[in-house]
Amino acid sequence: MTSPRTLLTAWNIQAKKQLGQNFLSDPNVARAIVNRAGIADRDVVLEIGPGLGAITVPAASVARRVIAVDKDGRIIDLLRAELLAAGVNNVDVREADILKTDIDAIGREAGCPLVVMGNLPYNISSQVIVRLIHARAHVRRAVLMLQKEMAQRICAGPGSKTYGRLSVMLGYCAQTETLMQVRAPQFFPAPKVDSTVVGIHFSDRLPLPDDDEALLFQVVKAAFGKRRKTMRNALSQSDLKLDPATCEQMLIQSGIDPMQRAEHLPVAAFVRLCNQIAIHR
């Protein structure tokens, strides 16, 4: 693996801060991430932001196929040259914005549920995870390198200050685990904070199936939209168009103290509440 500094200098390319470009420079870390992803020879990997191919090459050595999507057209040719030099011929490199990419269509094209991998910039991490949740019919699992703060948020449980909307959405349909830590100096250019690799395993069958998933996610968004307010006030001041008295009644019927805050409620409580709201609509 040629160092990112050397490659970028040779190709006269500078990392773009606005794209969150911090390229993994330690091949041992890259191999460890792929090993912990548990990729099998039948798997098709969707890699988000392959960059210079640090993870792409070891992933391609074990997967049936890798579909690598990168927004930065400047490094597409560089990446293809690196793959050619490594003798890799099962990677499909595509210049595209993952936030505008049809993940379901890629899954249908692959003919099997995808394994998603990526080193995600902080500014799009939440949006990508939400898109994966909605596309989970075609995504078996995701192994994502995230800023430490984001990783803590998605793995948090009720009562934690970092417990929020993403924690509940993932808790509803997936299991999350911390796989490994990656220190800032192991990237070029080095970010200001360390990163965490997180595994997200989407459930085939939901342990707490909801009657209306879209409504559930809307309720969760409303509850955490004003997280310092009580559930009664947060919901009644949201786009759900519910008055305070109705909110209080439905919260009580769901077994929730109206004066509780969203950060203290487990996933099951949100499901019960959503089902109550659906009944009264």
The proportion of residues in beta strands is 15-25%
Count the beta strands: 9
The name of the CATH architecture of the largest domain is 3-Layer(aba) Sandwich
According to CATH, the fold-level topology of the largest domain is Rossmann fold
| Low-confidence region ranges | none
Q: Give the structural class.
A: alpha/beta
Radius of gyration: 21 Å
The CATH superfamily of the largest domain appears as Vaccinia Virus protein VP39
Shape: elongated
Number of domains: 2
> Whole-number average pLDDT?
93
Indicate the CATH class of the largest domain. Answer: Alpha Beta
- Sheet with the most strands: spatial strand order: 4-3-2-5-6-9-7
| SSE order, one letter for each helix or strand | HEHEHEHEHEHEHHEEEHHHH
Indicate the percent of residues in helices.
40-55%
Number of helices: 12
N→C terminal distance: 58 Å
Please outline the major beta sheet. 7 strands, mixed
Family: Belongs to the class I-like SAM-binding methyltransferase superfamily. rRNA adenine N(6)-methyltransferase family. RsmA subfamily.
Domain Ribosomal RNA adenine methylase transferase N-terminal: 29-204
GO molecular function, one term: 16S rRNA (adenine(1518)-N(6)/adenine(1519)-N(6))-dimethyltransferase activity
Catalytic activity: adenosine(1518)/adenosine(1519) in 16S rRNA + 4 S-adenosyl-L-methionine = N(6)-dimethyladenosine(1518)/N(6)-dimethyladenosine(1519) in 16S rRNA + 4 S-adenosyl-L-homocysteine + 4 H(+)
